[in-house]
Amino acid sequence: MRIPGMRFYGLLVILSASGCFSGPSSSCISDGAASGSGLCDRVAAAMSFSAKKPWGCFSSAEKPELDYNWEWQTAAPVATRAEAVMPTLEASRLAALLHDSHFTEIQPASSSNAPMSFRIAAINGAAMSNFNQLNAAATAERNAGNNFAVSLVAEGPAESASRTIHVDRAKLLALAQAAACSETGLRVTEDGNPWLLIRDDGVRCLVMARVERRRHMLHLAVSLSTCWGSAANLPGEIEVSCDDHTLNCLTVAESLDCLYSRPSQPNVDDSQKLDGHSFLAVSEREDYLIPSNYKRLQQEFDQAQAAREVMARPVAPAFAAVPGIAYPGSAVLGDARALAGFLLQRQVIQVGEPERTGWLVFSGEALRRGKTLRVTIDLGHGPRTLIFKMPNASE
User: Which of 144, 199, 221, 254 has its CA 20 to 30 A from that of 261?
Assistant: First the structure.
């Protein structure tokens, strides 16, 4: 399974635009010095050493076969389906979001007939039958414009004719944030992929989970934005367990080890790491974004490829893969760049800014056969627990 959804593709386009999809000779990660700055400097900072026994020190009998096939499976969010929820807003919430003049336009002349709620009936003429359609319209690509005609229908004993207001993209997303407020967690679908949407006052968060069972790895995609209130430092904390076994948050180097190390080498195990297992503890480490094991893993990868007797299909990166586009460098190179560029760290998100999407990687032996994931996330008002069900493990 390749990286799903436009949220992922957008990130990879950004990586390409920054020069990180160029060939190995001009790459951010190389055996020589880094030629760029920022991300390239961080990625190249520790390429010249390896702390583990090099591949060449093993005899041919000791060298286990390396398997570079990825079998990602998407976990299903346990939440109300957004397609089954009406896109309605409480009148008080709508009034708080709109200017007085706009709200006066849609209010009935008699205050005694004032509705308790409004339904978003259409956006730019397209009917909104459920919350999933509203979410899709509010998060559509930015080339769709920044002026939206929102048709509202007052709900009551007798529905009134629709009234139309005009809002920008940020206000449209705020309307979606306020709609169906009784649903604390919603399963929304984007590009055919299931995301779990949670809303914490003005903070909006989308989470998708997929698992690679053979490597006992969990890949979380997290999108964050703030629709109203004040700027927020997000996320506060993220912890994950599988069938009540705590999973470890991984650095870039630990993630690469899980993907490309010899099977005989131990990966990150279930025991709690000395420096913590949670996102907050691990993401603040100085080496969080540094692929310090890149050179060793690349050498092992090259030797394994050279040992093949026949030309096989090129190995695709586990993370930096877009359907229909061949990665121009090695798989190890692609994943080192993608992880170093996209692993999530806390950041201040201002109201109205475009949503920020990042990745987290967790590991634990329980992922091999586990059934239930519990993702505990703090968005500023205390921890919230999200539930995902994993596909059945193959025998």
Answer: 221
CA–CA gap between residue 325 and residue 266 (Å, rounded): 33
What domain range includes position 141? Answer: 86-182
Classify residue 266: in a domain, yes or no.
yes
- In eight-state DSSP terms, residue 201 is T
CA–CA distances in Å: residue 160 to residues 102, 118, 139, 177, 270: 17, 10, 28, 24, 59
Q: Per-residue pLDDT tens for 158-203? A: 556 678 899 999 999 999 999 999 998 999 998 889 999 999 999 9
Last residue within a domain, chosen from 157, 182, 207: 182
Q: How far is the CA of 30 from the CAs of 50, 317, 360, in angstroms?
A: 14, 17, 24
Helices (H), the chain: 5-15, 39-44, 91-97, 100-106, 131-138, 169-178, 252-260, 279-283, 294-306, 331-342
User: From CA 217, how far away is CA 211, in angstroms rounded?
Assistant: 6
What is the chain's length? 395
Whether this prediction's pTM lies above 0.90 is answered by: no
Residues 29 and 333: beta-carbon distance below 8 Å? yes
Could you give the angle at the alpha carbon of 171 between the alpha carbons of 170 and 175, nearest 5°? 120
> CA separation (Å) from 35 to 30, 153, 257?
10, 58, 25
User: Domain of 148: which CATH number?
Assistant: 2.30.42
In a domain, 394, yes or no: no
Place of tokens 């995609």: 221
Domain count, the chain: 2
Question: How far is 336 from 203, CA to CA, in rounded Å?
Answer: 31
Would 395 be classed as within a structural domain? no
Digit-coded pLDDT (tens) for 201-211: 999 999 999 99
Distance CA 16, CA 10 (A): 10
- Please answer whether residues 239 and 376 qualify as being in contact, where contact means their C-beta atoms are separated by less than 8 angstroms: yes
- 178 within a domain of the structure (yes/no): yes
